[in-house]
Design goal:
Elements: H1 4-19, E1 31-34, H2 63-68, H3 70-76, E2 80-83, E3 87-89, E4 105-111, H4 118-130, E5 134-139, H5 149-153, H6 161-166, H7 170-173, H8 187-202, E6 207-210, H9 218-231, E7 234-237, H10 244-252, E8 257-258, H11 261-272, H12 278-284, E9 297-299, H13 315-329, E10 335-339, H14 366-384, H15 386-390, E11 392-395, E12 406-413, E13 416-423, E14 429-434, H16 435-438, E15 445-449, E16 458-462, E17 465-470, E18 474-479
Parallel strand pairs: 1-2, 1-10, 2-5, 5-6, 6-7, 7-8, 9-10
Antiparallel strand pairs: 3-4, 11-12, 12-13, 13-18, 14-17, 15-16, 16-17
Helix pairs in contact: 8-9, 11-12, 11-13, 13-14
Bound molecules: calcium ion (CA) (2 copies).
Length: 483
Amino acid sequence: MRRLPLLAALLASLAGAQASPALPSFEGQVLYQVMPDRFADGNAANDAGVNRADPRAWHGGDLAGLTAKLPYIQKLGATAVWLTPIYRQQAANSFDTAPYHGYWPADFRDVDPHFGTLADFDGFVKAAHGAKMRVVLDQVINHYGYEAAAVKEHPAWFNGKAECDAKKNKDVDCPLAGLPDLKQSNPEVRTLLRGNADFWRQQGVDGFRYDAIKHVEAPFLKELLARDRAAGTWTLGEWYGADTGTVADWQRAGLDSLFLFSLQAAMQQSIMGGQGLGRVASVLARQDELPRPGEVALFLDNHDIPRFAQGSLFEDQAQTRTRYGLRALMTLRGVPVIWQGTEIALRGGPDPDNRRDMRFENEWTPAERQVFETARDAIAVRKASRALSVGTQKLLPTPTRLEDDLLLFTREAGGERVLVAWHNGKARKTYSVRLSALDLKADPQAVTRSLFTGQDAKLSVSGGWLHLSLPGEDAAAFEVGAR
Ligand SMILES: [Ca+2]
Ligand SMILES: [Ca+2]
């Protein structure tokens, strides 16, 4: 009898533990984004309608090609792959464009024959998992393709002109780019979308990237996310243009991660555009608003915006600044995402020019090889450092006169601390900043070199001053020991 209260307490604590299991997490991962049609063609037998000279046509890439290129993605150092949608697409073209991108689904529970079969997808997932890599699949929950049979078969599943005209939230209830807009308040639609998530979960997918969530009915989305979380599926939402406030709101509403578009824009303008780093600092300064800053998806570019390297007229400058951008990305708290080709500074303007075919090692120029080596090294440095991969991030107060050219922050995990310095000046420069002004304590030490290979960046501390010798337009990271 006397044991009962103890037992009751034990049971209660077990119940408590069950009520709040560990949340799905990608902190420490490096995600590589693939658009299968534009990545690698592993099977010429499924190349119906392929015309690689036409940027709006199918180009022949498929799951067999992606599976064959997993060693390449591993060599780069990525630990997870995000595939844009692989669903069976509408057969017809719309606006003279083939559904090569995957965002015009006709059947959410099958693989488009251009990409292969469900068995090919299973083979890919098994190969990825065998290589200890995770798989994130794009999920479309807002719409069907223009020409999908379901549009005529189930008119009640869609918002029509009347709904669009009547509703207050046009983003949600009006078609996005004219696409047949799913009405998530319809119970059949909810059943369909829940079943789609379960279907792909059963194929072994580790995470979902939810497309266009700005345009989806929020009550349904929250319900879907709760089911994913209960099943251990990590969720990454695409709210186009999201800033820190939107990311924070949706992390609270049940998404594990969203893309931080405001940081992408700031990095594009500062690093590639040569404008001051103050705009990056002002985004990073809002980090504490985020419930889970280590989960937020960080990127230089993706398939919906012009390529990062397109921000310079000059190819060589774009390559240099992409190397800077890749190193900078790997110093930040969050989940870095690399869009296929950014690791070689592939160029391209708005869609579809930003979806040029991926080229691999034997097709690279020496300069592209150099960008790749920088990317590979930066990822390796991040993965080797607990501070860089999963540590906290603290922005240091840079003196006002330097804030356009210099961004300083620390990353810290356990006993390990790394000082990060981004330098936007065009030429090599030595900065001396009072440690007290940085709110930083550091012991006098011999010269410390940057963690990045082949980079001539140095740090030393003497007499209450921090001295940094930094190359122009680059990001460096220095181990500075425990606090
Ligand atoms: Ca093919
Ligand atoms: Ca909608």
